[in-house]
Specification:
alpha/beta; six-stranded mixed beta sheet; Peripla_BP_I; 2 domains; Rossmann fold
Length: 359
C-alpha cells in the first residue's frame, strides 16, 4: 500500500492479462532449481503481523514456500524485520549473505536500499512490491496495483450504506500523503460521487503509517461529526480506526443505526471488526475491505524466478479485470452488493475509468 511514484522511468510496463491466481499453482523448473531456490523478504516498518501490507506479503512468501515443501529459514523462505528505515540496507545485505535466490522489498520505503543492493548483486533477483524501482536493472521486477479501482468499489459501498443511514458524508483516512495513498483517495471519492454527487468526503491523513494515536483521534472526530463509514488506507496506523469504531459500537445495542463502520485495506480485515454489542450479541463492523492480491503476486513472481523467467527490468501492474484487486462482499447488504457489482462490470468493460490522482 505504501508507494510514492506514479511515473515509470526508463522501464517497461506490463499490465497483467490473465488472472493472477492462475499462475501461482506450480512451476516447470528443474529439480536442481527447486532444491536450491530460496526467497526472503525485507519488511517495511510495522512487522509481519501488522494485519495489513507486510502481513499480506509474508502470507505470499509462506504460501510459496509451503507449496514447494520448503521450510522457514536459510535454504527455504524467511523475512528480515525492519524496525526503522535505517534497517533496510542491512536487511538486504543479510539476505545476500545468506544466499537467498530472490529478495523482496515491501513498499516504497525499501526502494532505494533495494536498488543499491541489486546493483551490487546482479546475480540475485529482487522484487519491489507496490512501487516502481528508481532504476530499472535487469535483476529488479516491480509489482504495482490499480488500488484506485478497488477504492472506487469501496466508495460505492460506503456511499450506498451512508444513504441508507441518512448520512450526507463519509470519511477517509490515509497514512502518508503519498502518490499511492492519493490514488486510494481519488478512487474512493470517485466511487462515492458516482452514487451521490452531493455526498461529502471528509478526507484526512495521519502523515504516518505507524502513528496509531493520531489515526484514532482523526477517526473519532470523523465519527463524532456525523459520518458512520470510514475507509482507512493507513497501514498499521489504520488498525486504530478499528479501535475507534469498536469503542463506539461496544456501547450500542445490536441493530443500532449509530453503529460505526470501517472499510479495511490491502487484505481482508473482516476479523478486526468482530465485537460484542452492549446487549451481549456478537456482531461485526467491517463493511468491506479493498484488497490487493499481494500474496498471489509474490507467489507468481517467485515461481517465475525459479523457472528462469524472472520479469526483470519490468513493471507488472495488476487491476480489477485480472483479479489483482477486489473488495470483499460478505458483509454488504443486497442494495450495497448490487451497486458494487454494477460498478465492477462498468470498470471491467471500460465504461468507467477510475482516476488515480486527485485533480
Amino acid at each position: 500500500m505504501v508507494s510514492r511514484r506514479n511515473l515509470i522511468i526508463g522501464g517497461v510496463v506490463v499490465v497483467a492479462a490473465v488472472g493472477i491466481g492462475a499462475a501461482v499453482a506450480g512451476n516447470n523448473g528443474s529439480d536442481s532449481n527447486k532444491k536450491n531456490f530460496s526467497v526472503a523478504m525485507v519488511t517495511d516498518v510495522g512487522g509481519v503481523d501488522d494485519k495489513s501490507f507486510n502481513e499480506s506479503a509474508w502470507n505470499g512468501v509462506k504460501a510459496w514456500g509451503k507449496s514447494h515443501d520448503l521450510k522457514k529459514g536459510a535454504n527455504g523462505y524467511d523475512y528480515f524485520a525492519s524496525k526503522t528505515n535505517a534497517d533496510f540496507a542491512t536487511n538486504f545485505q543479510q539476505g545476500v549473505s545468506e544466499k537467498y535466490s530472490m529478495l523482496i522489498g515491501v513498499g516504497y520505503a525499501t526502494n532505494d536500499a533495494l536498488v543499491a543492493s541489486a546493483k551490487q548483486n546482479p546475480k540475485t533477483d529482487y522484487v519491489l512490491v507496490d512501487d516502481v524501482a528508481s532504476k530499472q536493472y535487469k535483476n529488479i521486477a516491480s509489482l504495482t496495483f490499480k488500488q484506485q479501482e478497488a477504492s472506487y468499489l469501496a466508495g460505492v459501498a460506503a456511499a450506498t450504506k451512508a444513504k441508507e443511514l441518512g448520512d450526507s458524508k463519509v470519511g477517509f483516512i490515509g497514512g502518508m500523503n503519498s502518490a499511492v495513498i492519493q490514488s486510494f483517495e481519488a478512487g474512493y471519492i470517485a466511487g462515492v460521487k458516482s452514487v451521490d454527487p452531493n455526498m461529502k468526503v471528509d478526507a484526512q491523513f495521519a502523515e504516518s503509517f505507524t502513528d496509531t494515536a493520531k489515526a484514532k483521534t482523526i477517526a473519532s472526530a470523523i465519527y463524532t461529526s456525523g459520518a458512520h463509514v470510514i475507509f482507512q488506507a493507513a497501514g498499521p496506523a489504520g488498525n486504530a480506526v478499528f479501535t475507534a469504531a469498536k469503542d463506539i459500537n461496544t456501547g450500542l445495542n445490536a441493530g443500532s443505526k449509530d453503529k460505526a463502520w470501517v472499510i479495511g485495506v490491502d487484505m481482508d480485515q473482516n476479523d478486526q471488526g468482530n465485537y460484542k454489542t452492549k446487549d451481549g450479541k456478537s456482531d461485526n463492523f467491517t463493511l468491506t475491505s479493498a484488497i490487493k492480491e499481494i500474496a498471489s503476486s509474490i507467489e507468481k513472481v517467485a515461481n517465475q524466478s525459479m523457472d528462469g523467467k524472472f520479469p526483470g527490468g519490468k513493471t507488472t501492474t495488476y487491476g480489477l479485470k485480472d483479479g489483482g484487486v477486489a473488495i470483499t462482499k460478505k458483509n454488504l447488504d443486497a442494495e450495497e452488493k448490487s451497486a458494487v457489482e454494477k460498478a465492477e462490470k462498468a470498470i471491467k468493460s471500460g465504461d468507467v475509468t477510475v482516476p488515480s490522482t486527485m485533480k
